[in-house]
Amino acid sequence: MLVLSQDYELFFQRSGSIEKCLFEPTNMLLDFADKSGVRVTFFVDAGMLSRMQQLSPTNASMAKDLSRIQSHIRSIHDRGHEIGLHIHPHWEDTRWEGGAWDFSATRYQLRDFSTDEVGDIVLRYTRLLNELCDGNVTTFRAGGFCVEPFDAIRDSLLQNGITIDSSVVPGAVLKDENKGFDFSNVPKRSWWYFDESPLIPSANGRFLEVAITPVVLPFRHYWGRAIDRVVGRQPAGVVGDGSSKAIGKREIIRRLAGAGRVSELSIDGAKAGRLVSSRVRRQNRKIWQVMGHPKLLGKSSLDLLQKFIKWKDIRRFESLSGCASAIRAGEDLAARE
Ligand SMILES: [Zn+2]
Questions:
Q1: Distance in Å, CA 14 to ligand 1 centroid
Q2: Is residue 294 within 8 Å of 22, Cβ to Cβ?
């Protein structure tokens, strides 16, 4: 089974345009999906919608952009794909200055907000998305995989009918004060039930984690990305026209030294080559969850995904909630790989 998930969002340093980061690459993906039968779960950055809505009454072009994005999300749903909740709470503090988004001095993680604020964010963001997809939001991915401390959002998610999480890449670690996570001790499985935290499986838990398939990046990967940054280019013909929020110097050095190479299996331009690596080719899995971001779709991304589907002889394509339903129905989708 292939589950393809995509984080539908702008960049968070220099935002880039909604045409190049959202519409153009997403439409390429949707056309590919029509031809191949792949179903896509789009984790929509609802904070962006919320902030645009707040600013729209006094900004006509903002109102117009928001309405175009909302129509686009509706069309994604109408074409048979899934809309999931993606939370980047820094939108709460983001300012619109001189015709551009200013992300400086924003709080990046939910743990930086009070319990009441978190409850309000989850409710408001989920409502905005449910309005666009007939109330079908049941899945969640934390912005930047910053899903801990989960108890801060657990009750709010339950109250809003969201019991499927996909924020964990088993084995991945990012050491960064503002946007870090540590999945080094989570089970190396495709899915598990949990209650208190997605990092702690619990057989009778009310939540289901459907993990993003991990992959080990080659040693040269971060060196290539570092060079891209120095010369100011996007890797592998990426469609999006913005730039990503930087990580701390210490983590960059750690990565250049060869650590932190467990990453998500992805169709993003810089990582899509791993889909057809010998390491992936050797693996047998019943569920592959490949992720990505429309903004980072590269010129070879879809060809590599097509090749991957053929190599692995994948014939079953599910949305994330479709995959979760199959698991909960007790289908033989062995959790251990
Ligand atoms: Zn994101």
A1: 14
A2: yes
Looking at the DSSP bridge assignments, the partners of residue 142 are 87
pLDDT single digits (tens) 80-109: 999 999 999 999 999 999 999 999 989 988
pLDDT at position 237 is 76
Distance 43 CA to ligand 1 centre (A): 8
Tell me what the mean pLDDT of segment 11-23 comes to. 96
Could you give all domains of the chain from N- to C-terminal order, each with its CATH number?
A: 2-328 (3.20.20.370)
Task: Tell how far the Cα of 115 is from the centroid of ligand 1, in angstroms.
Answer: 21
Separation of alpha carbons 266 and 176, rounded Å: 21
Tell me how far the alpha carbon of residue 86 lies from the centroid of ligand 1, in angstroms.
Answer: 7
Centroid of ligand 1 to alpha carbon of 137 (angstroms): 17
- Residue 100 alpha carbon to ligand 1 centre in Å: 19
Neighbouring C-beta atoms of residue 60, cutoff 10 Å: 9
Q: How far is CA 191 from CA 99, 211, 261, 326, in A?
A: 43, 6, 21, 12
For residue 142, how far is its CA from the centre of ligand 1 (angstroms)? 7
Mean pLDDT across the stretch 258-275?
89
pLDDT at 336 over 70: no
Distance CA 260, CA 182 (A): 10
d(CA 320, CA 6): 11
Ligand 1 centroid to Cα of residue 332, in Å, is 31
Residue 84 CA to ligand 1 centre (angstroms): 12
DSSP string, 54-86: HHGGG-HHHHHHHHHHHHHHHHHHHTT-EEEEE
